[in-house]
Write a structure and sequence with these properties.
By secondary structure, the chain is mainly alpha-helical. The protein contains four helices and no strands. Helix 3 runs antiparallel to helix 4. The chain is globular and about 35 Å long.
């Protein structure tokens, strides 16, 4: 559980030091929910920690991989109001270049079957 923090971890935390690992791994404070952050581009097959199925937040079209279509869809959400949470990758309340870069950084990630 070192990768995903403790079973009952609630992130982001008000304590800045508690967020250091998640910021280093995924670029923002918050619970690690994307397997590729720790496991590279190919996600381990089967159920993940706590029975969680494979989920790639950068897989905007939810087809099991992160490809050009996901980057295009993400770019389409740029600066649109109201913000659609699907496109707000870093959960800061705005869809901007940082969100597009998070999707682009995950390019090639797939959910193993």
């Amino acid at each position: 559980e070192a990768c995903h923090n403790s079973t009952h971890a609630i992130l982001p935390s008000r304590e800045a030091r508690d967020n250091m690992q998640t910021i280093a791994l995924q670029g923002y404070a918050g619970t690690i929910t994307e397997c590729t952050v720790c496991h590279g581009l190919t996600v381990p097959a089967g159920q993940g920690p706590h029975g969680m199925a494979c989920a790639l937040s950068a897989d905007v079209d939810a087809d099991g991989d992160v490809d050009v279509t996901d980057i295009q869809l993400e770019a389409g959400g740029w600066l649109v109001q109201p913000v659609n949470s699907i496109y707000d990758q870093n959960r800061d309340g705005v869809v901007d270049i940082r969100d597009i870069m998070l999707v682009a950084r995950s390019f090639g990630a797939v959910c193993a079957t």
